[in-house]
Automatic annotation (TrEMBL):
SUPFAM superfamilies listed in its UniProt record: P-loop containing nucleoside triphosphate hydrolases
Residues covered by the EngB-type G domain: 109-282
Cofactor: Mg(2+)
Family: Belongs to the TRAFAC class TrmE-Era-EngA-EngB-Septin-like GTPase superfamily. EngB GTPase family.
Name of the featured protein: GTP-binding protein 8
């Protein structure tokens, strides 16, 4: 029997050491993820399912506050997503082009996801971490706030396009609104917007620009909480609870489950890759209660 409270996929895997071999054989699991699968249970949970790890520190009465089961892939699903993000001769992952306006954006048929967030929220670092299995991809990290003024398009094999949007906050909203609003409103193949919030400081006034925009255009979006390695567990839990409450009470289009990540420890990165692969129609995990 699986340990109480352990997600079914995870429980099965820990019971049967042979299952590890199966995941690797069946999905050609990358070396990096094969190493993740060898981690002790607690470390694996912390790395792959950081929200679940945080939930353990909640008092029993408030356990329902995190919506952990909405996107609840198995490790097999996550392994499949890793292969989508792994660059090979057949699966080319590369920077395509940049654009200052939507009418300069490349016309691409594939599903698209975009990443938006305040300058310094950790957007470049997160995109770099997502592309760590494609080390040749160059993600420019700007040192000056507000420096990224263009939308940068990255192709992920035959699967989808990832768009890095300019940061907002400093010297925005003018730049941000002009360029980004049109993109968000009119880009036909945009499947999901990932809105980054710094987990150390929580939702700031400037973050509301992006929230309001997503809400106004009725876009489906997801909140990603960056830099989770920086805070104590207590502080992080407090922030996550506050942000969860905001999402539950103040938003319509935001996906209810939060995605905490760290570009330093890679916590949450595998799960986010799996979510992106799934919502762009490339995995079909059937994990969603709704999408
Ligand atoms: P951007 O302006 O949103 O692209 O932000 P960057 O990715 O350039 O990150 C801003 C600063 O935060 C840099 O000093 C990064 O090293 C730091 N940073 C980004 N992500 C993380 C993270 O996950 N953990 C920690 N500790 N620092 C981070």
């Amino acid at each position: 029997m699986a340990a109480p409270g352990l997600r079914p996929g995870l429980g099965r895997l820990f019971e049967m050491p042979a299952a590890l071999g199966r995941v690797r054989r069946a999905y050609g699991t990358s070396q990096a993820f094969a190493e993740v699968l060898r981690l002790p249970k607690k470390q694996l949970t912390k790395l792959v399912f950081p929200l679940q790890e945080l939930e353990r520190h909640l008092v029993p009465d408030s356990k329902h506050e995190f919506h952990l089961k909405i996107f609840d892939p198995s490790l097999e699903d996550i392994a499949r997503a890793e292969s989508i993000f792994t660059a090979t001769a057949q699966n080319r992952i590369e920077y395509l082009s940049s654009a200052e306006r939507l009418d300069h954006a490349p016309a691409l048929p594939r599903p698209e996801v975009c990443f938006i967030g305040r300058s310094n929220v950790g957007k470049s670092s997160l995109i770099k971490a997502l592309f760590s299995l494609a080390p040749d991809v160059e993600v420019r990290v700007s040192k000056k706030p507000g420096h990224t003024k263009k939308m940068n398009f990255f192709k992920v094999g035959k699967y989808f396009t990832l768009v890095d949007m300019p940061g907002y906050g400093y010297r925005a909203p003018e730049d941000f609104v002009d360029m980004v609003e049109t993109y968000l409103k009119e880009r036909k193949n945009l499947m999901r917007t990932f809105l980054l919030v710094d987990s150390v400081v929580g939702i700031q006034k400037t973050d509301n620009i992006a929230v309001e925009m997503c809400e106004e255009f009725a876009l489906p979006y997801v909140m990603v909480l960056t830099k989770i390695d920086k805070s104590s567990k207590g502080h992080l839990l407090k922030q996550v609870l506050q942000i969860q409450k905001f999402v539950d009470t103040k938003t319509q289009g935001c996906f209810p489950q939060l995605f905490p990540v760290s570009a330093v420890t890679y916590s949450g990165i595998h799960l986010l890759r799996c979510f992106i692969a799934d919502i762009t129609g490339n995995l079909k995990t059937h994990c969603f209660q709704f999408s």
